[in-house]
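Our collaborator T.R. sent over the components below with a one-line note: 'Predict the complex.' Nothing else. No constraints on interfaces, no templates requested, no preferences about which chain binds where. So this is a plain run: every listed entity goes in together, and whatever single assembly comes back becomes the starting point for the next discussion.
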Amino acid sequence: MILIAFAVATLAAIAVIAFCHTNRQMNAVSIAQGFFFAAISGATIAEVPLPVSSFLVGSQYFFIDHLGMYEILITVVIFTFAAIYAGGYVESLIATGELERGSLKLFYGAWSLLLLVIVLAFSSDNLALFWIFAELTTIISAMLIAVLSAKENIDAAIKYIFIASTAMLFSFVGFIFLFETSRSVFGTGSLNWTVLMQQAPLFPPGMMITAFTLVFIGFAAKSGIFPFHTWLPEAHAKAPSAVSAVLSGVLLNVGIYAIIRMAALVHQTSAMAFASPLLLIFGILTVGIAAFSMLPQKNLKKLIAFSSIENMGIMLIGLAIGTPIAIFWVIFHIMAHAFTKASLFFSAGILHRQYHGTFSGDAPDEIHDVFRFQPLAAWGIIIAGLAIIGMPPSPVFFSKLFILFQLGTVSLWSLFTVMVLLFVAAGAFGYFVIASFTKVSSPESHADARQYRTPAGMIIPVVVLIALVVILGIFFPSGETTFISQIVTELRF
Amino acid sequence: MIDTATLEGFIRILFVAVIISAAYIISTRNVLSLVSVYSLQSLTLAGIAFSLWLMEANPVLLAIAAITLATKVLIIPYFIATVQERIRIKRDIEFHYVSPTTSLLLSMVLMLVIYFVFSRIIPASSGKQGLLFFGAVIGISLMLMGMMVTFSRKRAITKVMGYLSMENGVLVFGMFVTELPFIIEFLIIIDLIILVLLTTILAVGIDSTLEEYHNRLHRFYLWGETEDVS
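Returned assembly:
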């Protein structure tokens, strides 16, 4: 029932978009869709006890438990804000000829469809079904990257599709292994996660190791884990900023979500002794690569993209530790990272509109007189930047702190390494901001420079999201804490 | 009814055909024949699924044979060939990291490695069990060979062929290792079709200059339905 409502709303939105003519109308439809999704998810939380039974969801292949609901909420919030933001942003893209008017329907249609597919992925109980939805998110988001009429965008989209889809085929082989394991142990095979969680303690560890490694390859590529991260900076930097926010805040979560689900299965068996070091090594390598790539970075959006890679590494490290506290903070970190990163990309998008003449995907930025032209975006980058590198009292600070505490109980050497790497990343971010935001040119040299008038629709998401980040860091409502604890219990960590 | 031993022999011959086609896809420079070889490879797969159905009488296998025949032998190759004709790419002579000879040697090594790894996981014995073992080895080898094509070629359209042949490998592996529900096979095909559609359209763009690209898209109505200038 719930999912049918989502699907019907999306189909209605796409149908309306097909008949719209202007950006404003199509954008209004996207915003309405976001609010409708938010209303349904809100009502579900308020009215229905989680996990939602299969009757309400509509099929045995779907379910919504606390983790799924949590991810859906993050998705819906970010999509709604990004839709509000996209209105002004797309208008400006059309004005400068970066987006053709003819591609508008494609853009908004793909946008609506992407929201639906992500929500369906998070409510799939069947892992193969989840795989297909995850694969569809790759294709649809690649469409959103390629929609701009620039060859480098097509390049980035093709790279994204091929790296992610190729790796995802390995995941599928992993799921085949899992299915065969379940079939050989219990007679009838199943790929439903809820069933597998019941069966997992009896699975032979050897098969679980093979399955986990294969699944990990695919979803590591999806969430930008080293060595499959190469598509991420280009795709995130070249996409329109509204799309970058969604890519970073929501789509990376799809990959991590799958790894969390899979780790929960492996955690039931003795194979965790193999999976933990694997996750830890790749987590540390990912943080390291991201930190050292951030250091020489001259392009703001690429810098933010590498910071996403770094945060994915942190989540892997937390997952590797595997204690309930670590998992709690990994789950918390997903939300903290998503909101902070979305506000960063929104602010970067405003700067992109201001300096777009020189601000291409590859070239170094030529940001100057930023406080004169775009003070709000500058402060957005500064505050959200402080939040993402983990300054107290941001939510990222708490999740990083507690994950590091837990890491210290496992291995002091890895704690030491990760801390150094985090300092490097924070330093890189700070260096970039100080170097580029203090550039002031003489008054006559920018006499011809025009200030980009930021529409209210692009300001509101930045302000509200940053407020949300600050509130999340200061207050820990008991509802939120119990909700996340519930997730950890359901994952049986 | 054909007896099981004959069918097994037949499937083994088809295995050889699959490997030969994969080797051809890795080494050829001629893009046009690439599509027909892929089509042949898929036909071989449909043949394997059909023979397995004759052996096991599992209706899912027949359905797989049918859907493979419809989509991978006919629709997808036809679509790619059409697009190719329009963008007039005849040869792909640019390779990224490895030359065809090296990748052929590499894939031989890979197959040996997979054979030894699998002989540890799955006990290889004669008869039906042996066939399953070979199916798994061939499936994964095909997948890795497809991956080599994807990463060693420059042209997006050849990369698509690599991805498609990887997917064929997953299909072979799935057929022999376990019995997946048909709905999943069906959904994968849908995913495959969307991916091929999108990447070939994008490939038109990447293999030509931007202005040409837009002109071509308009001329062939690939972008047509969104061309509602208000």
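Summary for T.R.: The CA atoms of residues 121 and 130 of chain A lie 5 Å apart.
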